[in-house]
Amino acid sequence: MKKMWMAIACCIGISGAVQAQDWKSYSGVGCLPIQETQDIRRSLGGISNWDNTSGTFYCPLVKDIAAANPNGLQRVNVRIFNNHSTAVTRCVLASRNADGVTLSTDSATCPVGIGACSLNLGPLATINGSNAALYCILPERQGARKTIIRSYSMSEI
Asked: Helix, strand or coil for residue 13?
């Protein structure tokens, strides 16, 4: 009987550790242009900028672990297909308190050139009630070629 309780206690401890990290993945189609008049296209492959000017896109993140942690927002990964031969794509991740004051930020840039790009951002500090924001600046279309935010994911502890 004692061994059974020890086994149960062990399993509870293990499952608690596994549940401590929370991971979510999103389609790029959920990102929104900051400028409502931005010419965009949504498809199963993501969201793309069809405008003749660069555009900033906000990609919503759901932060559902409320506890404060110096590395609470562990990592955000953004998958982009950079389809512009001379411009870069840049993404910024920010953690903010409940009043919108920025706690910390991180940014990354896809290199110039056509091809798939994976940006890793974080970790960032979090406090009770804080939120996270992801912004990406996509270059203008280049002829028939458009840069696409394919997907993004986040992990928090």
From this structure: helix
